Amino acid sequence: MEYTMLKDLNDTHDTWRIRVRICRLWDSTNPQKNGELISIDMIFIDEKENLMHATIKKHLASRFRHLLQEGSTYSIKNLQVVKATGDYRPLSSEFKCIFLATTSPKKLQEDTVQIPRHGFQFVMPDDIESRLNDPAILTDVVGLLSGIGEVDIVGNNWKKRDLHIITNHSVNATITLWGKHIEQFDPKIYKEEDGPHIIIVTSTTIKKFKGAVSFNSTNNSKIYMNLDIPYVMTLRERFARHSTKLKFIESSNSNKYTLEEKMFFHRMSIKELVDSKWSEDLKIRANVKDKLTCNDGMEPPRECGKRKASMIDDAEESGGNK
């Protein structure tokens, strides 16, 4: 069976047959209409590592959603190919694919064909100026993670977190994560001894403030840390001489929040608290009374007694005593 490579697709007909992997898959939604679905979008990659954006319009979403899975390979026939236009395009390419009612995807066995699991269009230095404040083409960015900011609240209660990176072209830059992407990024798991940490954020917009470049996540963005691909391995080797200690970026609004609000931003589970590294110069004291319940099969569970604990509710220097 003959397949067409993605780079050879054009808008001359709607009977193309391709063999690809879906390396990214997401819902495009309208935040102005309570997250109403606009389309299902994806990035195709073929065995020659060509990439192409594909979209399923809202009225066909239910027909195809259960048939497609991120990371799987497919034989797909009867795709429409059109010029790629409009804003927030995830790739810089001339064409994109559109699923029709007659489009037929067939999932393939993993060993049918060797297709890479991931594909990106990492921004080149010459492209940054042309994309500043222009949402037409979104940008994939990769670099060494060097700093992590705390969660900040700006504007109309928008949550954001700034990350500092050294890009693959050795440029210092900021990645600003917004909304749901803050929850997807857990800074506590990136330990110094496991570095260097290479971060990829896809589909960002580019802005510049006071001469500094900033990459901002969008609803279409995905975050990858230390992805197991050759290019990331190369970057980890290249940045191995850099310090792997992540710097803390203080919020510009830190003085605007009460202690209780800051505690809410930085909540930890009991397990996370117990597993944390504690300074020998820090002592904690508080008065705690709680009722202990024995869950020993008795119905209802019986009270086993009361426990008192003494801890400090504020951090104080203790001269090295614990």
UniProtKB/TrEMBL annotation:
Stretches for region Disordered: 296-322
Signal peptide stretch: none
Domain Replication protein A 70 kDa DNA-binding subunit B/D first OB fold residue range list: 3-104
Skewed-composition ranges (Acidic residues): 313-322
Gene3D superfamilies per record: Nucleic acid-binding proteins (2.40.50.140)
Top-level taxon: Eukaryota
Matches recorded under SUPFAM superfamilies: Nucleic acid-binding proteins
Sequence ranges of Basic and acidic residues compositional bias: 296-306
Pfam families listed in its UniProt record: DUF223
Protein name per Swiss-Prot or TrEMBL: Replication protein A 70 kDa DNA-binding subunit B/D first OB fold domain-containing protein
Species this chain originates from: Daucus carota subsp. sativus (Carrot)
